[in-house]
Amino acid sequence: MVPIQRGPLKTFTMKIWHIPSSLLLCLCSAGMALGQDTSDSLPVIRLSELTVNSTLKNMRGRVQDFVMANKNASTEEILSRLPEINMIRRGSYGMEPQIRSYHSGQTNLLIDGMRVHGACTDKMDPASIYIEPQNLQGIYVNSNTGSHIGSSIGGTINLSLASAMPSCEPYFRGEVSSGYQSASNAFYESAVLQYARHGWAIRANATYRKAGDYRSGGGRVIPYSSNEKLNYGISATHGLTRSGFIKLDVLMDDAWYIGYPALSMDVGRAKARILALSLFDLDIHPNWKQTELKIYANRVTHAMDDTRRVNVPMHMDMPGLSETIGAYASATQVLNKKSEIRWRLDAASTYLKASMTMYPQTGAPMYMLTWPENRMIQAGFGGMFIRRFDSTSSMTVSTRFDQYRYSLESAVAKDQLSVLNMSTSDIHALLKNVQVEYTKKMKRHYRITVSLGYAERIPTASEFYGFYLFNAFDNFDYLGNTSLKREQALKADLQFAYNRKKLHFTWNLYISRIRHLIAGTVLDNFSVMTPGATGVKQYRNLPHATLAGTEAAMMWKPAKGWQWLSTLKYHYGTDQDGNPLPLIAPLRLVSSLRKEITRLSLQAECETASRQERVSKMAGERVTPAFWLIHARASYTFKLKYMEQLRVDLGVENILDRSYYEHLDWNRVPRAGRNFYVMLTCGF
Amino acid sequence: MKRISSLFVYILLSSLIVLNSCSKDDPMPPVDPVKDYVKLASGYAAGAATLVELYGLDSASSGYTKLFVALKDSVTGNYVERAGITLVPMMDMGSMAHSAPVEQPASTQAVNKLFPCSVGFIMSSMGGTWTIAVQVNNLENNQSGMVSFPIHVKESSPSRMYSFTSLVDNSSRYFVGLVEPSDPFVGINDLEFVVYKRQSMMAFPADSSLSISFEPSMPSMGHGSPNNVNPVHIGKGHYKGKVNFTMTGLWRLDLQLHSGTAVADSTHGFDIEF
């Protein structure tokens, strides 16, 4: 629930009213300080001094900080280390985050509060690929239901964008990084420039990555796993005369020839353009805090390509387009010292179109719409009421309502879908979410949190309208179904936390019962569209399914300079007949020991997953063997005369060069083998 | 002020009336009934004082071909809208001659000034010379006459009509023509076939004794399409059903014709490319 700050802001000096709202939220959350006036008696404050409050961070924040300290980690790697998140992998890039085994259709993945829909029918482009660690300010994960931010049954991930804030003391800062990874012969170059003065601040960043086909454990090179991309953006903030700020964010991402070894096609070209204009921290009223108003637009284009593949029976093009415009307003209303409400009002409209053209040896090209042109319009309203009864207990009630409309946007789209004998008229749905959470602190160091919730989600555009979408995971062509019912979930969550100065431990247990789970069901009399596909499936509602699991995390600081972080996750999913659900990760444990000696940091890491025998036969899953890996990392920061810092990160991942794959890796494509990396970061 | 507002109301009302009357009085532009069609032949029917014009949706090609006969009074040039018309198509192959399946105009009353009819060109002009003789009984001047003109019939590609000898008796010869989809698209298309049976070289009556089933597929992909509806006889040898195309490209419709439960033919079909 807590967004965590990162980046060069830490040492900046600024007036208290210049602290971004999210930081205030960070400082104040976890409990006690909320609602108390941030006094003007401290006109200037060094943020580093505020780190005393970091003990209020929750475990997710600690894990995030710990992982982000490794400069070599990509956003996907950072996400994969969070306790609730697993990544579905189709290639070395573009992994799809799962929250507690809920796939991307069941969760919300937002960029700075914005909806960005992928333009790929095969989910090759989750929005997380547009955020490089350079412009990632923090990760917000809500795994519970009823998040007031958006309707979903699985939860919400929000990746907030880094931005610069105006400063009373003008400054110009920058950071240049350069890195290399041996397993994929990958180069990484990035630069961030930041300028701030009274009333104005601007931040520009660019990251370039280029990787070749990687080498898996044992030495086999995985073909079609290379990628190349450039990510760049500008964020400009202006302090308004009376109160608040206005901010413009421009984020662009261009990628070329991204390989997806687990799929039959790669991506030839992908482009994302993300624009946002926001007003925030407006002093509307003393009781209204963290106000934000944002309008945004984004456009993603995506062209799948098989020209680099050999033995292609028939060449095909698969371009996709996604366009979203949206707006949201959010604010915290302080009711009194003990209670407040966080409001959010938002609306968005997303247009999707994807097509496929196949070129036979003779005859006319064959064209069809894989996402017949469709538009989703959503308007939602949510509130989270927080009430603190005393210094040891508090209660949160969040509710969210969303009105959705899906429509087909052209006669061609309607004609094509009518072939499936299904309704092509508009689909309307009102979604309702509610969640109640109660937290009680016991015996000073213990805290127990219980939450119960009811949540709904609307089917995705692919689930409604997908037209012979080939799924390389189970080798079936998938058809949409406009008569799908919404998924409904009843969720219960129990968290136990133990917090001492040197030891932090959390343990979560969750269970949810999902009604009308959407899954592919085999259609017997349909012939496949994709050459080599096993058959055709259509999305249908299963009567019900159960997801359960546990996560535990421990951060122990046994002595000065030592940190030991361990995270463990286990998920369990079963359908109405007791069969295992597909794509459920087995028991997974990551343990890292870090020693910091002044400017040197050394880290040893062990990563292991158990054998997954609970596999879905319906989805054609097979048993995934267990694996364990060892990584070693080190970093050293030089203090130099002419620059603020020069930092070197070195490391070896998968030291034993194991050949392995995870259960969520499509088509059992082995992951990278022994990988040496080096990264130089120079800040000025 | 009151005067100004009443003036304003007056102007508004009068302009409305003017606009309204304008739209009412506008004469409808005369619509040329043949503007979307291609003229295939024309000639005077001697004795009927009538100019006979033959139109098609496109230039004539082998297969089931919709035609439109336009009759004009040879003196006034006005369309003749009441007439009895009989078409006799004839193929002269030098050593032999034969006719073709034909659907005469259904009524003596023109539809939109034209007389719709059809001819099933069972071959193209590559094998000889096609002529169509049109017998006109002009009911407006009560005169009758005949005109005959040559027609050039292109070879259809892909073919729109095939013939087979029934496996049931090994002698009956049938002709199957594709009527719809004439303008195929991705989606649910109307499907219409027409079946004729050869009685003699000069007579090809419509046949309703067979039942038809079909299977669409894309030869280059090997897949079919879901939810097709087999055609059923609706009269005059026409069979109507539905065919679904899931994408553009070349589609093949494999037909099976049954006489009762016995298979009459299962080796032919139509290609549709769009």
Roughly what percent helix of chain A?
under 10%
User: Overall mean pLDDT score of chain B?
Assistant: 89
- How many DSSP H or I helices of chain B? 1
Number of separate structural domains of chain A: 1
Radius of gyration of chain A: 25 Å
CATH topology of chain A: Maltoporin, Chain A
Shape of chain A: globular
Strand content of chain A: over 45%
Structure explained in plain terms:
The complex is a heterodimer of chains A (684) and B (274). With 684 residues, chain A is mainly beta. Chain A has a single domain, classed as Maltoporin, Chain A (Beta Barrel). Chain A has helices at 21-28, 59-68, 75-81, 411-418, 461-465, and strands spanning 13-15, 44-46, 85-88, 96-99, 107-111, 114-115, 136-142, 155-161, 171-181, 186-197, 200-211, 227-239, 245-258, 266-280, 288-305, 315-336, 339-359, 366-388, 393-408, 427-442, 446-457, 469-471, 476-479, 487-499, 503-523, 535-556, 562-575, 588-597, 600-609, 627-638, 645-653, 675-683. Chain A has a 22-stranded antiparallel β-barrel. Mean pLDDT of chain A is 89; it is low at 1-56. By secondary structure, chain B is mainly beta. Chain B has one helix at 2-25; strands at residues 38-45, 50-56, 63-73, 83-92, 97-98, 102-103, 115-121, 129-138, 143-151, 161-165, 173-180, 187-197, 210-217, 229-235, 238-245, 250-259, 262-265, 269-273. A five-stranded antiparallel sheet of chain B has the order 1-2-3-7-6, with no helix packed on it. The radius of gyration of chain B is 25 Å and the shape is globular. The termini of chain B are far apart. The relative contact order of chain B is 0.13. The mean pLDDT of chain B is 89. Classes of the chains: A mainly beta (684), B mainly beta (274). At the A-B interface, strand 18 and helix 4 of A face loops of B.
Q: Short description, anyone?
A:
With 684 residues, chain A is mostly beta strands. Chain A has five helices and 32 strands. Chain A has a single domain, classed as Maltoporin, Chain A, CATH 2.40.170.20.
